[in-house]
Amino acid sequence: MHPQLQKLVALQDIEQMIAEAQEQGEALSGMGFDLGGLEALKEKAAQLAGEIENRHLGYYRRLTGRFGHAVVPVVGNLCTGCFANIPASFVSATNENKLQKCENCGRILYWP
Amino acid sequence: MDIVEVLQHTSPELFLPDPEADDKPGVLAELVAKLVAGSKTMSRPDAVLQMLESREALGSTAVGPGVAFPHGRTLAVQKLTVLCARSRKGVDFDAVDGQPTHLFFVLIAPPQDSGHKYIKSLAVLTDKLQDADLRDRLMAADDYAAFCAVLKGE
């Protein structure tokens, strides 16, 4: 996997975790979960973001602002963001180390 | 949602009867390896492990007496997946009460799931595992079928 995509996936996972801890904090605390590491996790996210090239991070931020999720999985040759068909040529070996974007919606594509 | 619905997201392939590790990093790695091997739709163990490690940084998920609920959402899965594990010797999982953790319920969900199934499943399990007698019976269960039967109260 493209190393920058790997970092973008990790960043999106962490940022979603932070958002969920804030939105569902009461429910999670009610189940007994301690969310005291929230600030440390925010620092970790910031550190990870610092390891991503500005052009990729800027693009990720724009997509996140527009769609909520910038990186989406491809399932059954479909972009799960807009359900457009993803050409088979996208998964060829020559494209393995590229950051792929959906031609229809522009979201960053991830093959789980 | 009830325990029967939660158990629809697991399978015999997602049951780890006795992990070898006795520390947190080791057991997390074993749990993820089992998840990837047993789920059929998960192929990025590094992404799942990274997410679970981040979740532990937020606060230990070992909140019940002897029970941990490692959980979170990641792009690396396509549907809610639940793995059950049981360590007879116990694992140092940074539990809130400082005691070893014996039972693990790992819940991994995709970034979006309809009706927040993942949070509801977590609530069902954390509530269920408050029962000391049930925990004892889970520790004594012979296999996956017996483990599930105990959870269902059969």
CATH topology of chain B: Mannitol-specific EII, Chain A
Low-confidence stretches of chain A: none
| Chain oligomer state | heterodimer
Q: What are the secondary-structure elements of chain A, in order, as H or E?
A: HHHHEEE
Examine the coordinates and then state which fold CATH places here, giving the name of the CATH topology of chain A: Helix Hairpins
**Largest interface by Cβ-Cβ < 8 Å:** A-B, 32 and 34 residues
The number of helical elements of chain B comes to 6
Shape of chain B from CA axes? globular
- Cα gyration radius of chain B (Å): 14 Å
Helix content of chain B: 40-55%
Helix content of chain A: 40-55%
Q: What's the rounded overall pLDDT mean of chain A?
A: 91
Q: What CATH architecture of chain A would you give?
A: Orthogonal Bundle
> Unreliable runs of chain B, pLDDT <50, ≥5 residues?
none
Question: How is this structure best described in words?
Answer:
The complex is a heterodimer of chains A (112) and B (154). With 112 residues, chain A is mostly helical. Chain A is 48% helix and 9% strand. Chain A has helices spanning 3-23, 25-30, 38-50, 54-67, and strands at 71-75, 78-79, 108-110. The mean pLDDT of chain A is 91. Chain A has a 3-stranded mixed beta sheet. In chain A, helix 1 (3-23) packs antiparallel against helix 3 (38-50). Chain A is globular, with a radius of gyration of 16 Å. In chain A, strand 1 (71-75) and strand 2 (78-79) form a beta hairpin. Chain A has a single domain (3-110), classed as Helix Hairpins. Chain B is an alpha/beta fold and 154 residues long. Chain B has a single domain (3-151), classed as Mannitol-specific EII, Chain A. Chain B has helices at residues 3-7, 24-39, 45-58, 117-128, 132-140, 144-151; strands at residues 15-16, 67-68, 71-73, 81-91, 101-109. Chains A and B meet through helix 1, helix 3 and strand 1 of A and helix 3 and helix 4 of B.
